[in-house]
Amino acid sequence: MTTPDATPTVEELEAQERRLVFEHFTHDDAWALGSLLVATARERRAPVAIDIHRAGQQLFHAALPGSAPDNDAWIARKRRVVERYGSASYLVGARHRAKGTTFEASSRLDPDTYAAHGGSFPITVRGAGVIGAVTVSGLPQLEDHNMVVEALDRFLADAQAT
């Protein structure tokens, strides 16, 4: 596994998606996961915005000190990548880079609408597939991605313990 600062491989990113699967995802789960992300960001004084969408509905949103309206635009662009491809925005970008190209050059999608940059991760429910996305924006893309993955790891570990 990679260290927090090392660039993960496509295989490692795909393994994260296979591991981070919910049994269910309710409004209360969105609140708890979003609150966990807010607490983590506050502890680190991270100037981020946090968003959780399920089935086209925003279930959670927070903008911490130092975040800006641009973070909300980045959230929407990264979330659209998850919704379109069913994979983490960072993984979609990594797959293009592994082929020697970029998402922007290869996808032919409007970069003002889609951004394959780290920070949006699919909410996958066992037996249902991808039903939404949790997104962080405000840090360098790998740090955004890692913050979401860390929160999902903690949230799912806590859910299994109860």
From TrEMBL:
Pfam families on file: HbpS-like (PF03928)
SUPFAM superfamilies per record: GlcG-like
Homology family: Belongs to the UPF0303 family.
PANTHER family in the record: PTHR28255, UPF0303 PROTEIN YBR137W
Protein name per UniProt: UPF0303 protein GCM10010280_10360
Annotated organism of origin: Streptomyces pilosus
